[in-house]
Design the sequence.
């Protein structure tokens, strides 16, 4: 019965330690939110995550149609001529995009935000047949043609972009011609009905962005090549790179996408554009209606996100507490030591404080150094305290060695994200096996009966004085 009461007490303390652990996780999530706000603030002053949908040839026209005017009774009273605007959309036959992303860093307070400068060139070839389906009943007037370059955030354009059409310079204006959206356009002369437009375009530009870049493959045949000195790219798009290499000098990736393998043209015609709906590491691309858009995408991510790493580490906090309390419980039962619930609680709080130290330090120094300093501080504190609780320095050092092994195992889980599941399962199995092996010969009934501190010995009665026990002699007269 006493063993059960002690186990319930330890379980209650373990649940109670969840409160500071949850509070610390809340602080981590709050710091993540502050960093996201820093990313958004920098994106507003410079440029956000960029996306490109270009080039597209738009030819406008106006149909003159008869429209009936009816009265309140639904009777036609007259017919008037009404102008109905429309446009044709022509995608390029071939598209070749080549760009070099130069990574940059911007700071807002203690938060570092990854940006880049893209030096790019977009070459495309058009062959567009203008329809000749004009009828006398509804005469059609063909208007201006526009060569559109959709860019998510034109604030990121550096210098003056250069557009050449069949080798001739073209003037660029802001906005898209013939449809809504952000970007640049060049106005071209109105084509004649039934003619075929054949253009070779070359667009040179420099574009600044924050963390992520997406390109929409709109041609019949698309070739996209991106290079950078950044060694930690993340490829998030709808297509896998045909050729990809990542080394100490950076990365190089090349995609070849056919219109048969992509819905990009249909999505563009439906009014969908690749707009960054989330900035940064979680960048995703879609339209305001929530539909996804096929893109080639890459993000310049940090190799170690201190907040995500700290959040992952804090999820193992309850495991640390449970294992530590189990170790205390084994010492108390087997060695017949007396450990007060307050001592359990102080050790649990020391374990929880580690995660707060880790977040605070990692905001100012590298994550691995912050982990080393925070773990060393907690291991030293626990080793010193437990050596007095257990009444022996060797026991305290052994306990500190156990905690150090746990911190080392946790660090291995954090840096081995792909193998975290199997490593975590193996660690739990090893710990359970160790406990079972160590306690395989323990008589739990006997240990449970002796969990209470041994009673104090009763005080023995005072010994009789020598004067009382010795025979009395009377001096002779």
Sequence:
């Amino acid at each position: 019965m006493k063993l059960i009461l002690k186990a319930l007490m330890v379980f209650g303390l373990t649940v109670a330690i969840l409160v500071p652990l949850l509070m610390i996780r809340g602080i981590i999530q709050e710091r993540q939110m502050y960093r996201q706000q820093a990313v958004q603030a920098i994106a507003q002053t410079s440029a956000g995550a960029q996306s490109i949908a270009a080039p597209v040839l738009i030819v406008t026209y106006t149909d003159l149609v008869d429209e009936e005017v009816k009265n309140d009774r639904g009777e036609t009273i007259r017919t008037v001529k009404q102008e109905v605007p429309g446009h044709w959309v022509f995608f390029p036959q071939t598209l070749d995009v080549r760009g070099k992303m130069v990574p940059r860093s911007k700071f807002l307070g203690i938060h570092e935000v990854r940006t880049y400068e893209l030096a790019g060139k977009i070459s495309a070839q058009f062959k567009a047949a203008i329809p000749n389906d004009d009828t006398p009943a509804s005469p059609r007037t063909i208007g201006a043609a526009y060569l559109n370059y959709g860019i998510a955030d034109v604030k990121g354009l550096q210098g003056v972009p250069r557009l050449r059409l069949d080798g001739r310079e073209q003037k660029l204006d802001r906005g898209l011609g013939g449809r809504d959206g952000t970007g640049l356009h060049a106005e071209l002369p109105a084509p004649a009905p039934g003619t075929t437009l054949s253009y070779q375009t070359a667009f040179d530009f420099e574009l600044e962005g924050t963390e992520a870049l997406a390109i929409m493959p709109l041609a019949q045949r698309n070739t996209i090549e991106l290079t950078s000195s950044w060694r930690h790219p993340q490829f998030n798009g709808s297509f896998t790179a045909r050729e990809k290499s990542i080394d100490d000098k950076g990365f190089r990736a090349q995609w070849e996408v056919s219109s048969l393998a992509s819905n990009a043209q249909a999505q563009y015609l439906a009014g969908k554009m690749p707009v960054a709906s989330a900035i940064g590491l979680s960048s995703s691309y879609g339209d305001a209606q929530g539909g996804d858009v096929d893109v080639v995408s890459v993000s310049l991510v940090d190799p170690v996100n201190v907040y995500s790493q700290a959040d992952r580490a804090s999820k193992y906090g309850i495991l640390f507490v449970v294992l530590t309390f189990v170790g205390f419980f084994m010492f108390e039962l087997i060695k017949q030591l007396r450990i007060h619930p307050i001592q359990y609680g102080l050790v649990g709080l020391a374990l929880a404080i580690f995660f707060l130290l880790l977040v605070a330090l990692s905001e100012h120094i590298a994550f691995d150094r912050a982990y080393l300093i925070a773990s060393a501080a907690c291991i030293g504190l626990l080793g010193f305290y437990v050596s007095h609780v257990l009444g022996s320095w060797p026991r305290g050092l052994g306990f500190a060695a156990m905690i150090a092994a746990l911190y080392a195992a946790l660090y291995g889980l954090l840096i081995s994200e792909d193998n975290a599941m199997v490593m975590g399962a193996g660690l739990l199995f090893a710990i359970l096996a160790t406990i079972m092996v160590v306690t395989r010969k323990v008589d739990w009934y006997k240990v449970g009966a002796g969990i209470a501190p041994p009673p104090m010995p009763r005080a023995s009665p005072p010994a009789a004085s020598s004067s009382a026990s010795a025979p009395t002699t009377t001096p002779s007269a």
